[in-house]
Amino acid sequence: MAVKKKITNASLKQLTVAERRINDTEVSGFHALKFESGKVVYYLYYRINGKQANYKIGPASDLTPAQARDLAREKLGEVAKGQDVQENRKEKKRQTEIKKSLRLGIFLEKEYLPFLISRNPKTAQRLYKQMVSTFADYLDTSIPDISAFMMQKWVAKRKEDGRASATIAASFNALKGALSRAVEWGFIESHDLKKVKIPKEDNTRIRYLSVDEEKALLQAITDRNELIRTKRDSANNHRQVRGRDEMMDLKSVRFVDHIEPIILLAMHSGLRKGELFSLEWSDINLERRYLTVKGTNAKSKKSRVIPLNETALNLLEGWRSQNPDKRYVFTNGYDDLPITDIKKAWLNLLADAEIKNFRFHDLRHHFASKLVMAGVDLNTVRELLGHSDLKMTLRYAHLAPEHKAAAVGLIG
């Protein structure tokens, strides 16, 4: 049997399970219920659209009577404005559940990409595609579930795959930035990605291919090309039998795809991966045998000119003849946008060539090391690599003495 009195700490203590409810004398509809367990909960009766509803304010263990009464007044004020506070709560709960289940891929596409476009339309699609490619394994993960522990394992795997710390950091920071926006926009309360540690790069590490390794890599590329040509022939035979249009005969072209020219150009130019991927045909002068790395694409932000040796010139002439109307030298094959990754093909080639502990970036070291061992002075090597500081180039200095000694030995 309900009692009517002001709800206070004292009246709540006196309330029995048999009485069950106290109706407050100060705020209409405000009441407290006592359950058999002894738990007391505050509620608010209200009417909207001719119907009565009962809104749960909260347990007495969390709220004093005065606090609960103030909340009751606040909710009655919302009701007076025509709001159904119970439905508002349900809607907020639904929205919370939606946000909790929001997957990374959907968030990046529907929320973050439009933001990137608003910031810089020219780079938005490239940044978005890089994130989708880099974090492909996590696109179906709910964004609240993306944790520091999860990302620390991702960092370890990237290092194991031979990715440079700077590359890992750039990709990770892009994701961290996206999740920080998710916090700002109310999709998640917080994230703990600040706890993720990315190991610093050992800049003294120099890894280049031995003569046998270089031969093995080139043979692996040749074998890959032949396998792709064989598969294309088989597919065209299949199409021919069924009266379907055949795909281009790969035996009629030098390169089956962009993998071989990218790797060979890296070996013979020392270009960084990002410089290769952003390279445009307008940056290359085949007649005068040089290419230009624009400052906007260079790590040092300074332009540099790289002469093309016979191998580089020959491959670029062949690749240009296969791609006469493209803006970028290496495109994704679907449109005239630059490629963003060759990880799968690169790792497969290393496995086929049985080459261990070698990153794509090490092709740059391979280029520089061969120059130094051929007797090229370090300052020239510095200019070709685009090092802003000679200290970076001095890492290769140890390769010079023995070859100089060997050269002198020829006349001894």
UniProtKB/TrEMBL annotation:
- Keyword Zinc-finger attached: no
DNA-binding listed as a keyword = yes
A molecular function (GO) held by this record is: DNA binding
SUPFAM superfamilies linked to this entry = DNA breaking-rejoining enzymes (SSF56349)
Which parts of the sequence belong to the Tyr recombinase domain? 204-409
List the GO biological process terms: DNA integration; DNA recombination
Tell me the InterPro entries matching this sequence: DNA_brk_join_enz (IPR011010), Integrase-like_cat_sf (IPR013762), Integrase_catalytic (IPR002104), Integrase_DNA-bd_sf (IPR038488), Integrase_DNA_bind_dom (IPR025166), Integrase_recombinase_N (IPR010998), Phage_Integrase (IPR050808)
The source's domain of life comes to Bacteria
Q: Which UniProt keywords apply?
A: DNA integration, DNA recombination, DNA-binding
| Annotated family | Belongs to the 'phage' integrase family.
Protein known as: Tyrosine recombinase XerC
Organism whose genome encodes this protein: Vibrio quintilis
Taxonomic lineage is: Bacteria, Pseudomonadati, Pseudomonadota, Gammaproteobacteria, Vibrionales
**Gene that specifies this protein:** xerC_3
